[in-house]
Amino acid sequence: MYPTYKCSPPLSGSTKAYLTLNSFEKNGDGGGPSECDNQYHNDNTPVVALSTGWYNNGGRCHNHIRINGNGRSVVAMVVDECDSTEGCDADHDYQPPCPNNIVDASKAVWKALGVPEDNWGGLDITWSDA
């Protein structure tokens, strides 16, 4: 069994989180279409999925967040939930549930933060509503 979460750490003006890499394209590693609009999104567009608590039952859909990491900043649009309550099925690309502190980001976000491609995958960041 994997741990599951319905809540995420409290938000502040600079909320600590862990940035992960996700594909939002059809046949990418993100599983099904995005929760916010039932669409796929180009990985060259700065989009993110937030852990269940921060996703707030879709309350952040299509809102923009500012991500700070690697000495840089980027604004990205929330299009999906990084499900902290379910996983290990086709809808979640057979991945375990997300931890409760995840900002799951497209390649465009990683590029904008200037992270070398060999280091894509996990990065301590802060984020806030933009």
Keywords:
single chain, 130 residues, Barwin-like endoglucanases, 2 helices, mainly beta, globular, 8% helix, six-stranded mixed β-barrel
Tell me what the structure shows:
The structure is a single chain. With 130 residues, this protein is mainly β. It has a single domain (15-129), classed as RlpA-like domain (Barwin-like endoglucanases, Beta Barrel). The protein has 2 helices and 6 strands; from the N terminus they run ββαβββαβ. The protein has helices at residues 52-55, 107-112, and strands spanning 15-21, 47-51, 64-69, 72-82, 102-105, 122-129. Strands 1-5-2-4-3-6 form a 6-stranded mixed beta barrel. A hairpin with a 2-residue loop joins β3 (64-69) and β4. The longest helix has 6 residues, at 107-112. It is globular, with a radius of gyration of 13 Å. The chain starts with 14 loop residues before the first strand and ends with a strand. The relative contact order is 0.32. The model has no long low-confidence stretch (mean pLDDT 90). Keywords: Secreted, Signal. InterPro entries: Kiwellin-like, RlpA-like_sf. This is RlpA-like double-psi beta-barrel domain-containing protein. Belongs to the kiwellin family. Its main location: secreted.
The CATH fourth-level homologous superfamily: RlpA-like domain
How much strand? 25-35%
Shape: globular
Number of domains: 1
For the record, the CATH class is Mainly Beta
Terminal residue distance? 36 Å
Q: How much helical structure, as a percent, in the residues? A: under 10%
The number of helical segments is 2
- Overall residue-averaged pLDDT value: 90
The CATH topology: Barwin-like endoglucanases
- Element order, helices and strands? EEHEEEHE
The unreliable regions are none
Pfam families: KWL1
Protein name: RlpA-like double-psi beta-barrel domain-containing protein
Keywords: Secreted, Signal
GO cellular component, one term: extracellular region
